[in-house]
Amino acid sequence: MEEKKFVTELTDINEDLSQWYTDVITKADLCDYGPVKGTMVIKPYGYEIWEHIKEYLDVEFKKVGSKNAYFPMLIPESFLKKEAEHVEGFAPEVAVVTYAGGQELAEKLIVRPTSETIIGEMYSKWINSYRDLPMIMNQWCNVVRWEKTTRPFLRTSEFLWQEGHTVQPSEEDAVKNTKQMLDIYVKMCKDLLAIPVLSGRKTEREKFAGAVDTYGIEAVLRDGKCLQSGTSHYLGQNFAKSAEIKFLDRDGELKYGYTTSWGVSTRLIGAVVMVHGDDRGIKLPPKVAPIQVVIVPIASHKEGVLENTEKLAERLKNAGVRVFVDDSNQTAGWKFNQWEMKGVPVRLELGPRDIENNSVVAVRRDTHEKIVLPLDNIENSINDLMDKIQQNMFDIAKEFVDHNTFDVETMEEMIDCVNNKKVAKAYHCGDEACETEIKNETGIQSRVIIEECDDEHKCIKCGKKAKHKAYFARQY
Amino acid sequence: MEEKKFVTELTDINEDLSQWYTDVITKADLCDYGPVKGTMVIKPYGYEIWEHIKEYLDVEFKKVGSKNAYFPMLIPESFLKKEAEHVEGFAPEVAVVTYAGGQELAEKLIVRPTSETIIGEMYSKWINSYRDLPMIMNQWCNVVRWEKTTRPFLRTSEFLWQEGHTVQPSEEDAVKNTKQMLDIYVKMCKDLLAIPVLSGRKTEREKFAGAVDTYGIEAVLRDGKCLQSGTSHYLGQNFAKSAEIKFLDRDGELKYGYTTSWGVSTRLIGAVVMVHGDDRGIKLPPKVAPIQVVIVPIASHKEGVLENTEKLAERLKNAGVRVFVDDSNQTAGWKFNQWEMKGVPVRLELGPRDIENNSVVAVRRDTHEKIVLPLDNIENSINDLMDKIQQNMFDIAKEFVDHNTFDVETMEEMIDCVNNKKVAKAYHCGDEACETEIKNETGIQSRVIIEECDDEHKCIKCGKKAKHKAYFARQY
Questions:
Q1: Do B345 and B224 belong to one domain?
Q2: Is the domain of A142 the same as that of A232?
Q3: Measured between alpha carbons, how far is B411 from A457 in angstroms, rounded to an integer?
Q4: What local confidence, expressed as pLDDT, does residue B210 receive?
Q5: What is the count of structural domains for chain A?
Q6: If I label B211, which of B64, B114, B303, B384 is the partner at 20 to 30 A Cα–Cα?
């Protein structure tokens, strides 16, 4: 049967996920390489995924009182130096503007790698009293981090993201906000991207430069590696002190605020590709797919086929479905492969016999299942089918994570586990140097903490009293 | 009466529009100055206006087949030099990255002042056949142009905009696209911003560097100056040739494409402020107002007032109205002034007597008219009222433009006209040098062409045969 003859020039996904990824992202038309090394062009088919993520998050952010704003991209070099750990974290990878308007600048300007410092500067000006708090703003923007090794969506010199920055009146409020935003990210990954992320607090070693605590979400890839897909930071009073963000509290005392920041980026598109892809190409969850349904007319030269295809497309469009008719002059088989590679959740095949039977053949991208659907009420059938696909994609990914995380008790077990493409769960003392030893010796890092522990567990590495149990994996 | 006692610290708008603008934009909380000279922070109250413009345009762009994408911000310096006129136009105002990742770069990178060159580079790679055309992409992004004299929203070193770039198979298609996008801008200004713009083709002198033709929209300000508020360029084959954008046409011939580009920026927010403002502050059209209705409880300590205010707010929110309750402990008079200054279209005052009468007092920002509205069916009354305000704001602005544009026949008349804060309509030979003379001698420039002319009219300046009739004004 034609639809089984898929021929792709993709690398075997089980052999080499990394090469498969490199192959598929340009073939599926998600992106292209920019002229400057390390940069990428996000093509419309990739960009629309980002638009759906934005729409979803924008609503959720506004529900918790966040408002969008826009802060300048160019930051005085001196700002970056205000917070010691922050400068250490970012200085090696910033891009610097030294000339502008035909003149050498008196002070060099940094292209923002993140906006903590400049937003802090403005907040310190705007915030006077407890009545001004909480202050919660978010911006959708580009940032630049000059990375040595780059890969489209996952790590590029410039990327798009949102960065939320808040000032809270107390530690309690700030920690609450940090966790609340993490929850929004977890829910978005589940609802929209069908990705069951590992989530939780990061260890001292893995936290953001200058943060008190960093919380993160991690996507588990089929090779057992983890991909950091979003972070939410509790910054304590560190940034408030360096930026002088003070407020007059109800009790008449002048206090430093407690700040948080949180962000997700276009890396999420890479996560979707990596988590759901298979040997036929990418697989997009219906909720973010730019094309949810592709209609391929069969024997389109026959009377009424194209006309009925258009009619069907129109009905689905009116029902809010993102639909595309492929009436190009390629063979049906070529089209089937092409749209499977591009990850369209549902393919509809409509030919003379289907029209006669007042039905259409639907093929699911997730299960390859073929179903005959009556044309009456097709709008509801398609919407139901997309809900099922969305749910099934999450369930499959969840099952994968559940079946690929294992408790380990020795370093040997951990190395075995990770080498066998699984994620390890292990007790650790929490000591930064001890974790660095693990990393240096094995390439394995903690991802997020599963639970703190008070009991008698021992650190997998040094044997001292364990502080927590965490996920360990290689990072992507 | 309290609501008439408005006290603002704004400069008299009729005396000095420019200073009034500078006063009002920060007081109304639209923006603040960034730490680097010439940069600005767009605060949430200003940014939301931009969000409404984006939402509107995004729908219109997609209707004509445009898709959003994202191209890298950093452009190799050599790209800018590909098109001679283009480099001349932008070279003096670019910001240049010379260091990145701790190293001096082999090739300097330009922060995009516009993206013609880099998008052209990608298009040349993506376009092969007539089947790939038209190619229509748009991006919402930041650009940097290092200007000497800056003013928030109107001219800042960095600003937000959208830039659409298309490749068309023929001159006819390209010119059609150029005009079609101009029409979308004109309609958006009318429908959303209540601004009746002057629109049309620009003269040779005023067109975009490298364009064959530039079309523009111009807002007429109350001091008779014009503010360029958007442009749509027909670039002919100029950019296609420098970027090597070629396609195999139906006839088997390899041809250069015809390109267009079009953009509007956050300058539109400045236009809204300038066009509609009055001595009490800014005045926002309901369609873009972040707060459409502010409810001020009267005698809020009295039983039931706050409760009923909240109930009313809830009803309006559910009807899709953007509503804010000002229950701060300022006086009612202070609040009235404050919200008038911030341009909220409708103020509702709800006190014990209103509650008793099952009604509410509505005050229009545009006419200062006070109306008593029954609480029954208040949702519809408010939506109707907002429609009326939106229409009235446009009508008033339109009347202003109609009453402030005059035909002039001599240079003396033109200077008089412009010095009297009116826009002049005059015949001109179209010669660039002749127009430059007008500019140099009087500060007056052509804005857009009203009509071409074949008949016996003479150039207002040199007396030679006129080529067109155009609007002349000082530019903001």
A1: no
A2: yes
A3: 92
A4: 87
A5: 3
A6: B64
Interface of A with B in 126-145 (CB under 8 A): 126, 137, 141-142, 144
Q: Which of B32, B36, B244 to mutate to test the interface with A (most CBs of A within 10 A)?
A: B36
Cβ-based neighbour number of residue B160 at 10 Å: 19
Contacts of B72 in chain A (CB under 8 A): 34-36, 39-41, 157-158
Is B420 part of any domain?
yes
Whole-number pLDDT of residue B2: 41
pLDDT of residue A6: 47
User: CATH number of the domain that B433 lies in?
Assistant: 3.30.110.30
Do residue B99 and residue A98 have CB atoms under 8 angstroms apart? yes
**Residue B283: HSE in the Cβ half-sphere, 13 Å Cα cutoff:** 23
The shortest C-alpha distance from B66 to chain A (Å) reads: 9
* Rounded mean pLDDT for each run of 10 residues along chain A, 476 residues in total: 52 93 97 96 98 98 97 94 76 92 94 95 98 98 95 97 98 98 98 98 92 97 95 96 96 98 98 97 98 95 93 98 95 96 98 96 97 97 98 98 97 97 96 96 97 90 96 95
Q: Taking CB atoms and an 8 Å limit, are A97 and B79 in contact across chains?
A: no
Q: What is the CATH number of the domain that holds B201?
A: 3.30.930.10
Contact A100 B100 (CB under 8 A): no
What per-residue confidence (pLDDT) applies to B1? 36
On whether residue A398 sits in a domain, the answer given is no
Last residue of one domain, picked from the residues B248, B276, B304: B276
Residues A42 and A74 reside in one and the same domain: yes
CATH of the domain at B341: 3.40.50.800
Please say which residue of A245, A276, A307 terminates a domain.
A276
Could you read off the pLDDT of B76-103 as tens digits, one per residue?
999 988 877 777 778 889 999 999 998 9
Which residue in the set A34, A44, A69 is minimally distant from B137, CB to CB? A44
With CB atoms and an 8 Å threshold, state whether A36 touches B71.
no
**Domain range for B171:** 18-276
Per-residue pLDDT of B169-225, as tens digits, reads 999 999 999 999 999 999 999 999 999 999 999 999 999 988 999 999 999 999 999
Task: Specify the pTM.
Answer: 0.96
State yes or no: pLDDT of B279 exceeds 90. Answer: yes
Q: Give the containing element (helix H, strand E) for B95.
A: strand B95-100
The CA distance from A64 to the nearest CA of chain B, in Å, is 15
Q: Which of A361, A179, A146, A446 is nearest to B72 (CA)?
A: A146
Contact between A163 and A147 under an 8 Å Cβ cutoff? The reply is: no
- The whole-angstrom distance between A94's CA and the closest CA on chain B is 6
Quick one: average pLDDT of B235-240?
96
With contacts defined as CB-CB under 8 Å, which chain B residues touch A79?
A: 35
Do A184 and A331 lie in one domain? The reply is no
Same domain, A264 and A333: no
* Selection from B230, B226, B222, B218 nearest residue B276 by Cα: B222
Residue A372 covered by a domain: yes
What is the rounded distance in angstroms from the CA atom of residue B398 to the CA atom of residue B219?
11
Q: Tell me if B395 is assigned to some domain.
A: no
* A vs B: CB pairs below 8 A: 160
Residues 154-173 of A with CB under 8 A from B: 157-158, 160
My answer on whether A361 and A322 are in the same domain is: yes
Residue of B nearest to A71 (CA): B41
**Residue A397 corresponds to which tokens in the numbers above?**
């990914």
Strands (E), A101-170: 103-111, 135-144, 158-168
Q: Which of residues 40-99 of B touch A (CB under 8 A)?
A: 40-44, 47-48, 50-51, 67-76, 79, 91-99
Same domain? For B255 and B301 the reply is no
Task: Please indicate, yes or no, whether residues B217 and B317 belong to a single structural domain of this protein.
Answer: no
Which chain A residues have a beta carbon less than 8 Å from that of B73? 142, 144, 158
C-beta atoms of A158 and B74 within 8 A = yes
In which band, very low, low, confident or very high, does the pLDDT at B152 lie, cut at 50, 70 and 90?
A: very high
A351 to each of A21, A29, A110, A363, how far by Cα in Å? 34, 28, 59, 14
DSSP class per residue in B315-376: HHHHTT--EEE--SSS-HHHHHHHHHHTT-SEEEEE-HHHHHTTEEEEEETTT--EEEEEST
- Distance from the Cα of B47 to chain A's closest Cα (Å) equals 6
Sequence-ordered strand ranges (E) for A170-256: 198-201, 213-220, 226-234, 246-248, 254-256
